[in-house]
Design goal:
- It is a single chain.
- The chain is flat.
- The longest helix is centred in the last third of the chain and has 27 residues.
- 50% of the residues lie in helices and 10% in strands.
- A hairpin with a 6-residue loop joins strand 2 and strand 3.
- The protein has a 3-stranded antiparallel sheet.
- By secondary structure, the protein is mostly helical.
Length: 125
């Protein structure tokens, strides 16, 4: 049998990123898209221990590349790019308001019963 040559476009072109760099890029990408990143999701996403995730987050906070806030309802720590906290909070508020309005509209539609029109038999003959 002949040996197959690897497809040219699948070469490894650059060095792989460290876990810290991947996490930082993930947080920055989420921020640019208008979302916070919860610290609790980092260890699942990158398959690292929870203590390691907190170490990486601490380093990033210390370096000043990201900011953090705490969720008022759940108490989770949320991360985002520096100086984008209030912008993302506003986007989150708008998304929640729109979601609530859509749920309210759909529940009102489901609760309405069709009105049956009755034929009046007492017509003038």
């Amino acid at each position: 049998m002949s040996e197959r040559k690897p497809f040219r476009k699948f070469r490894n072109t650059g060095p792989t990123l460290t876990v810290e760099q991947k996490i930082e890029q993930f947080i920055l990408r989420n921020s640019k898209n208008g979302y916070f990143t919860k610290v609790s999701t980092i260890n699942f996403k990158f398959e690292i221990s929870e203590s390691r995730a907190w170490e990486v987050v601490g380093e990033l906070l210390f370096n000043g590349s990201i900011e953090s806030i705490h969720d008022q309802n759940t108490g989770d720590m949320k991360l985002c790019e520096c100086e984008k906290t209030y912008q993302i909070m506003e986007l989150e508020r708008i998304r929640n308001r729109d979601r609530f309005r859509n749920k309210k509209k759909s529940s009102v539609k489901l609760n309405k019963k069709p009105i049956k029109k009755e034929n009046n038999k007492t017509q003038n003959s």
